[in-house]
Amino acid sequence: MTPHPDGGTEGLLGEVLITRQPILDRNVTVVAYELLHRDVAGKIDDSAVDDVRATAAVLIEGVLGWREHLVNDDEDAHINVPIDAFESGELLDLPAERLVLELPRMGDEFAPSRRSLRQHRGAGFRVLLDDVVPDDPRLTLVDDVDLVKVDLVASGTLPALRLIRDLVAREVTVVAGRVESPALFDRTVAAGASFVQGFFFTQPRIVRTVRPVGLSATHLSLLQACSAELFDLDQVEALIRQDVTLADRFLRLVTSPGLRWREVDSIRDGLLMLGDRAVRRWVRLLVLSAAVRDGHPEMATLAAVRARHCESLHKALGSPRQLDAFSLGMFSALGHDGVLEPEVLAELPLSDEVAAALGGQRGELRTVLDIALCAERADWNGVVSSGVSLGLSPAGLARIQVDALAWARHLGVVLNQTRPPTVDSVP
Predict the structure, then answer these.
(1) pLDDT, tens digit, for every residue of 171-223?
(2) CA distances (Å), 322 to each of 152, 272, 313, in order?
(3) Which of 13, 214, 249, 405 has fewest C-beta within 10 Å?
(4) Mean pLDDT of the 91-103 span
(5) Multiple choice CATH, 11-202, 2.30.30.100, 3.20.20.450, 1.10.10.60, 3.90.226.10
(6) Residue 165 has pLDDT above 50, yes or no
């Protein structure tokens, strides 16, 4: 199964919703993604299909078959698997390299056996106990796993932090889960957690200053030029050249193996190669990635996923204004839950419809964004119910979601590039 460069997917992905959530280390560097999946093709007759083999099929075809498009070579892939599939040994035939099997909390009778833990670790897998809470019966097994993920919400913050400290004292490697604020990140790291998962990196630590988005005059002019009805190639080229960082990233983009289909010798050559519509998309993403200087690099990737997701959803609805939907998803990363403050909206060159949706006003565009946000958080019920309300099928929603992840995966290195460019790199 291979994604088409301009969208579209094949195979089982028409029946599987997939999203990914980053796992970061103490230095706030992404080291892994948890790949969350759900079969949405419909209820299968239990008498006709073995549940364990069905789960293995979803893992192999729906998740691992797309791993290279969702996770970089130096990042681990975490996959949540049911205990019965784990105990059966059906997963032992999967490729174990850089794969972490997460075992959920399902009650005392569904705890994994030491035999199966040792069997999978002996085959090269790493194993994580997921959603661990104080007094969890699985705590007797921590010496037989590689990682323990502590849920910061289920039992309350203080008991969870105490559990993290106790586990670290036993030399257990801890992942702190459901960390939703920078302050909570600081507390979990202080308690000894080695890794953290949650959307804390999307929340600002301090109140925004005079320029709430951090756009320079050049960046704002470039956004306005790319929002104009008539596209002025000379003006866009001149504005890109004025910013060494943007020029460097633009050249990295158009010369990256995943996007290049012929040689590019200059910024103008790259603009001509991409064409009007594509340039408008890329420039907006590049400006945003440069503007969020005090945010986490993963925010640029998150913005790219939302932008592509919203654009593809709008296209599926038959709307000709796909660039509006692209801007909707991209700029939504600047606000909590995709809602921007009035002073931020006032600074951005947006259509009235997009500004209203980003301000929280209900309507088709806001529903499109809500689908992207639900997919990001693995709220499959929200994805399907909102999608169906717009006339979109679960299979179509699944294809659009995975296409957005795969598309943004190719942009990640360029968008998050931090190596200082040199003037010589700008032709």
Answers:
(1) 999 999 999 999 999 999 999 999 999 988 887 654 333 334 567 888 889 99
(2) 39, 21, 9
(3) 214
(4) 91
(5) 3.20.20.450
(6) yes
| Domain spans of the chain, in order of start | 11-202, 217-415
Instruction: Report which of 285, 288, 277, 236 is spatially closest to residue 411, judged by C-alpha positions.
Output: 285
**Does pLDDT of 8 surpass 70?**
no
pTM of the complete model beyond 0.85: no
Cα 370 to Cα 188, 212, 328, 378, 422, distances in angstroms: 30, 23, 11, 12, 40
Q: Collect all residues with Cβ–Cβ distance below 8 Å to 76 and sequence separation of at least 6.
A: 23, 31, 32, 33, 98, 99, 100, 126
Distance (Å, rounded) from C-alpha 357 to C-alpha 363? 7
Sign of CA dihedral 370, 373, 379, 383: positive
Degrees (nearest 5) of the Cα angle 377, 379, 382? 130
Identify whether the C-beta of residue 197 lies closer than 8 Å to the C-beta of residue 23: yes
**Mean per-residue pLDDT, 381-406:** 93
Euclidean distance between CA atoms 130 and 6, whole angstroms: 36
